[in-house]
Amino acid sequence: MVKRKFVEGQSYQFRYVKKVSLDEDFFVFEDFAGERYLIPAYYYKNYGFEYEALINCTVTRIDCSGKVSLEPEHPFYKLGSTYDFHFKGLDISEEEDYNKYSGSFRKRKVYELIVLDIYGNEHTVSPYEWQKRKNYHPRYISCRILKIIKGHFQLINNESVTEPRKKRLGFFNGNL
After folding, report:
1. Going by C-beta distance under 8 Å and a sequence separation of 6 or more, which residues neighbour residue 79?
2. pLDDT tens-digit map of 124-144
3. Fewest CB atoms within 10 Å of the CB: 6, 39, 85, 167?
């Protein structure tokens, strides 16, 4: 059998074969040449793979030994698309920055909006300055999906500050 040559970043179709349990659970995918690939089931438990179904997967990495890492296409969310995610809360933490010239540390606040996808999984997104208020509590946050890695999203805040949106969010009611 000739081994198929893959290119990182490209999508290919794989057939879902089965779920196996070793030390942990894995999904088994097979390419058209009959080569099989394991992906950890933990990250993709909500994907609902069906036996013998063809699944589009992106080759995310090929290491020096030839091991291929796959990212199956999400059944609901698509790369580059914008969705309204349920707002869960605002996380405020402190980090220390080191200044190599003065040898001193400076504390700074780090803000992250926590949002939920349709399965209830948490994701974080950087807020705009006007979203960094403790009493900011919208129902949804509009986000664009930049990347999906192991079922987790890298999101871009897609909220705009247009007048109708400000009004809907309560900017003119003194709520924020």
Report:
1. 145, 146, 147, 148
2. 999 999 899 888 899 999 999
3. 167
